[in-house]
Write a structure and sequence with these properties.
The complex is a heterodimer.
Chain A lengths: L17 H4 L4 E2 L5 E5 L9 E2 L6 E2 L4 E4 L8 E2 L4 E3 L3 E4 L5 E9 L7 H9 L13 H10 L12 H5 L9 E6 L8 H8 L1 H15 L3 E7 L3 H14 L2 E5 L8 H9 L14 E5 H13 L5 E7 L7 E6 L4 H7 L7 E6 L6 E2 L13 E6 L16 H5 L6 H9 L3 H6 L10 H5 L6 H20 L1
Parallel strand pairs in A: 1-15, 10-11, 10-13, 11-12, 14-18
Antiparallel strand pairs in A: 2-9, 3-5, 4-7, 5-6, 7-9, 8-9, 14-15, 16-17, 16-18
Helix pairs in contact in A: 3-6, 5-7, 6-7, 6-9, 12-15
Chain B lengths: L1 H30 L6 H9 L12 H10 L12 H12 L9 E5 L20 H4 L17 H5 L5 E4 L2 E4 L9 H5 L5 E5 L4 E5 L7 H7 L9 H5 L4 E4 L2 E4 L9 H9 L5 E5 L8
Helix pairs in contact in B: 2-3, 2-4
Classes of the chains: A alpha/beta, B alpha+beta.
Chain lengths: 451, 278
């Protein structure tokens, strides 16, 4: 086996992917009620576009915004709109949400829904019949955001910029977060829309080459995509299994050997990175004019009775997902939205699934680290594993002491918050949290200066 | 003999040196004289000298300079209070207009066991950090209880009691450091027109059902106060706002609203902390 390309630093947490990797995607039964948050993306919040008591059908727009960096939201079930309410997202943000009560008649459910979203035919080719702007506009109208977790509006990434031409489009199928298998299942079960979406994104950005990158711990996904992509002339690349391989900076570093500048985007070095789930949704939005209403969510962990991959309408409560998977076991200790490295602990199971939700991980008492924080012993392990060459302990301690100048000297803005440092820290210092605190304090200081 | 000569010689040398240095210093004092407004020194003398920054200037001397230039009002010194404001006005030769002190009030009254949907938390034990991870409790508005405010209070006026910030109005001087430290923005400065002021001790704007899920004591937003006393109370979503501009200590609506409030989220705060009769 040849050496796979990768990036410096990083860690190898236990993957635990076997729990749900073989579980074929199941469709969550249509929930009685959904709450669609007005903010599910990075950027400006949507304004509600429907009145209470209005009837909406699957795919109808519920809200939109005039801002460029934003994405509209859509109804993921048919039903009646309720009074605007507020929900607390897993990251603690209190945002407004539009509730929709399901009507008795649902146009699609079960396997039909899966087929409607991922079923063929998915044409391939250079798609020259589509103007780049047409594709970008379809992304915006479809409410597409990065489904890998950051939820950055896709149309913003794909817009052509004469000053910064794109030469390579990377389709990110790494899924380096432990436990999660949603992207893996998508690639195994529905490789065709991923490839079609990749080709459409290539047409939009004008990239010369497009590469689908998959960590080498997913042989089935690699094989399945190679079969479809080979015929369409798209390269499928195996990259080393290492966390955070799926971070876009790390992926660009591993595949293209280019370093994305701090505060910049892959765009600055001629690359665009799009998640596989986003690519599949893009194909559907452009070719069929259907918005992003459902996504695959992995419900997994040792604390869940039957780990599954579910196709879930956006806005469904986490509680429904967990109930569908048989509930939690007696020794379940913590429910995390996302994976254990970058996820947020859920406090309220009525929180709705958003576009950026890739999984729910239920950890048991044995798995939750309960070690008490002790003083930093200056072992330097965090420095060894930091994929962006920072000194996490210095930044964290400076943030803790409120010494923002020092934190900036150690380049706090460069931190990607991947969590490698906190993972290896023998003193259990909450390094990432402290660094994030420092970033917030810096923002506060900057806005205070402005005023 | 030799000793006497040595002593005299030393005395003479030192005397000559002293006179010489004295002239040099005297000359330097005139040559490099910087004119200081005598007012600044007088103003600085009248201030308590706490250097708390509560006035918005970097330390007392900068405030004194701004005052002397006529750029700042005389009522900004929170630790000094009314008496300092009067002294400052005296020095500046102006009339002080009814200075009423501003004090910090907390808009939350839920002790730790009253805040529901609490979860285990192993992170950094400060409010700022806890606020970044969705906090440690259901209420997205209320006090987190790790005491960031207690830490920044230079006057030892804040104590965390069972996870709730309690302000001691005997000690609070109104510098506003806690207001800036609170990541949830639930401490605010209000004009204390009397020793005890009515305060809304909840910050949760959600509807009654949602509040009940996360808190045992939070405001249900029934708007009874706004109906009983429309002059002073208005509703902002599920939460009343008290109009402190119109507030007068003997306004009849205050007592009516306080008594009618079913969740007891309208509370008199100030000194004495617990009056004997009410």
């Amino acid at each position: 086996m040849t050496t796979r390309s990768s990036f410096p630093g990083g860690v190898h947490p236990a993957a635990h992917k076997a729990l749900a990797a073989e579980a074929a995607t199941e469709v969550l039964p249509t929930p009685d009620e959904i709450h669609v948050p007005l903010v599910q993306h990075l950027g400006a919040p949507c304004k509600p576009g429907v009145e209470p008591r209005a009837e909406v059908a699957l795919g109808d727009e519920l809200g939109n915004s005039d801002a460029f960096v934003s994405a509209p939201i859509h109804a993921s079930i048919s039903g009646t709109v309720g009074k605007l309410t507020a929900v607390t997202l897993p990251n603690g943000c209190r945002v407004r949400a539009i509730p929709v009560k399901a009507s008795d008649e649902q146009p699609l459910s079960g396997q039909d829904l899966f087929d409607d979203i991922f079923g063929g035919p998915w044409p391939t080719g250079r798609f020259e019949q589509y103007e780049p702007k047409q594709i970008v506009d379809a992304c915006r109208a479809g409410g597409l955001v990065g489904l890998g977790g950051a939820a950055f509006p896709t149309h913003v990434k794909l817009v052509r910029n004469e000053k910064r031409p794109i030469d390579t489009l990377l389709i990110n199928g790494c899924e380096c977060e432990p436990y999660l298998t949603a992207d893996d299942r998508l690639m195994v079960e529905a490789p065709a829309p991923v490839v079609t979406g990749a080709l459409l994104a290539q047409r939009a950005t004008g990239a010369e080459s497009v590469k689908i990158c998959i960590e080498d711990n997913k042989p089935k996904a690699l094989e399945s995509l190679r079969r479809v992509a080979g015929a369409a002339g798209v390269e499928v690349l195996a990259v080393k299994t290492k966390y955070p391989q799926g971070g876009e900076r790390q992926l660009v570093a591993a595949v293209l050997k280019r370093e994305v500048p701090i505060g910049g985007l892959p765009l600055d070095v001629g690359a665009v990175v799009v998640n596989v789930g986003t690519a599949a949704a893009l194909a559907r939005a452009v070719l069929r004019g259907k918005p992003l209403t459902h996504r695959i969510v992995t419900v997994t962990g040792a604390g869940i009775r039957r780990p599954r991959n579910l196709l879930v309408p956006i806005g469904a409560a986490y509680r429904l997902l967990i109930d569908y998977c048989g509930g939690v076991t007696e020794d379940a200790a913590r429910i995390v939205s996302g994976g254990p490295m970058m996820g947020f602990t859920l406090g309220n199971l009525d929180t709705p699934v958003t576009k950026g939700t890739s999984g729910v991980t239920v950890l048991t008492h044995d798995e939750v680290r309960k070690a008490k924080e002790t003083a930093c012993v200056r072992c330097g392990r965090c420095v060894d594993v930091c994929p962006v060459h920072l000194v996490p302990t210095k930044i964290a301690l400076a943030s803790k002491a409120g010494d923002l100048d020092l934190a900036q000297r150690y380049c706090i803005a460069g931190c990607i918050e991947c969590g490698c440092c906190a993972y290896v820290c023998p003193a259990s210092v909450p390094l990432v949290q402290l660094i994030r605190l420092g970033k917030v304090l810096l923002q506060k200081a900057a806005s205070a200066k402005k005023n | 003999m030799l000793t006497v000569v040595t002593v005299v010689l030393a005395a003479v040398v030192l005397a000559v040196l002293a006179v010489g240095m004295g002239y040099v210093l005297g000359w330097a004092n005139r040559k490099f004289h910087v004119a200081v407004d005598p007012k600044v020194e007088a103003l600085l003398g009248a201030m308590p000298g706490a250097n708390c920054g509560g006035c918005g200037y970097v330390g007392c001397s900068e405030y004194a300079e701004a005052l002397a230039r006529g750029e700042a009002g005389v009522t900004l010194c929170a630790p000094g209070g009314v008496s300092t404001a009067e002294q400052l006005a005296d020095i500046m030769g102006i009339e002080v207009d009814q200075a009423c002190p501003y004090r910090a009030v907390l808009h939350c009254s839920a002790y730790e066991h009253q805040r529901l949907q609490r979860r285990e938390y192993f992170g950094e034990r400060t409010c700022g950090a806890a606020n970044l991870v969705g906090g440690t409790q259901g209420c997205a508005y209320g006090c987190l209880g790790f005491g960031d405010c207690e830490l920044v209070c230079d006057y030892d006026a804040i104590e965390m009691v069972d996870g709730l910030c309690i302000i001691d109005y005997e000690k609070c001087v109104g510098c506003g450091a806690c207001v800036r430290a609170c990541p949830r923005n639930i401490i605010s400065m209000i004009p204390f027109k009397a020793d005890r002021m009515l305060v809304v001790v909840c910050a949760n704007k959600d509807n009654a059902r949602e509040v009940k899920e996360v808190c045992e004591v939070g405001c249900s937003g029934c708007a009874l106060c706004a109906r009983k006393g429309p002059e002073l109370f208005s509703m902002d979503g599920g939460l009343p706002i008290i109009d402190y501009e119109a507030y007068t200590p003997d306004h009849p609506d205050l007592e009516i609203a306080r008594e009618k409030c079913p969740k007891k989220t309208l509370v008199f705060m100030g000194k004495p902390a617990e009056p004997e009769s009410f």
